[in-house]
């Protein structure tokens, strides 16, 4: 009796998700990036913009993992990729937390004389509304309330819209005269993540080889 109870508790432990921990890591990591930039960037006039840049870069990494987890698991069928899929809710919430730190950096930047044009504020603001809606529906109760179809529609459209903002930002950086290798790397990574997504959808990869 006791042994059986321990065994099932053990098995359960291995399948338990780390959603809260991932969310906390996104928040703490983003906060660390923000604090480190403000501490070490030398206090020049553009160190508020640097804080915005570095926090966005940190959250871009979380975004790409969440965005590519599904196709990576379907294509490689590797156990590490399945772990990413199992932890996708936590990775998504970690991204949301990290990107909320980007928002904090933006507000600091705006408060210190930063100027954003109306198109950026509208396009970026809409992205934050999607982010909010996706985070608010990243729990079982919300999935049940919305229904699987509507939940999927919201999270698919939201993810593709966020991808669009990331991709056009990095494409712009690559084409700018002061482009740096990291911009090219991130632009290519964003393109690759979309390539993987489209590949699994267009080839119906998951249906040909059911798990
Ligand atoms: C109201 C909305 C937003 C404003 C005002 C804003 C502002 C900024 C600022 C000031 C920077 C730093 C610019 C520099 O490097 O000098 C930045 C960088 C960046 N932001 Fe935002 N942002 C907004 C929303 C977003 C959203 C929604 C995303 C993604 C979905 C995003 C992704 C990025 C990226 C990828 C970078 C460049 C990071 C790098 O160079 O690696 N931003 N943003």
List keywords for this structure.
84% helix; disordered N terminus; 10 helices; 211 residues; mainly alpha; single chain; binds protoporphyrin IX containing FE
3D structure, described in words:
This protein has one domain (18-208). It contains ten helices and no strands. It has helices at 2-15, 19-40, 47-76, 79-86, 88-111, 118-136, 140-146, 148-175, 181-202, 205-208. Helix 3 packs across helix 4 and helix 3 runs antiparallel to helix 5 (88-111). The protein is globular and about 55 Å long. The model is unreliable at 1-12 (pLDDT under 50). The structure holds protoporphyrin IX containing FE (HEM). Protoporphyrin IX containing FE is lined by residues 49, 52-53, 56-57, 60, 102, 106, 109, 114, 116, 120-121, 124-125, 127-128, 162, 165-166, 169, 173, 186.
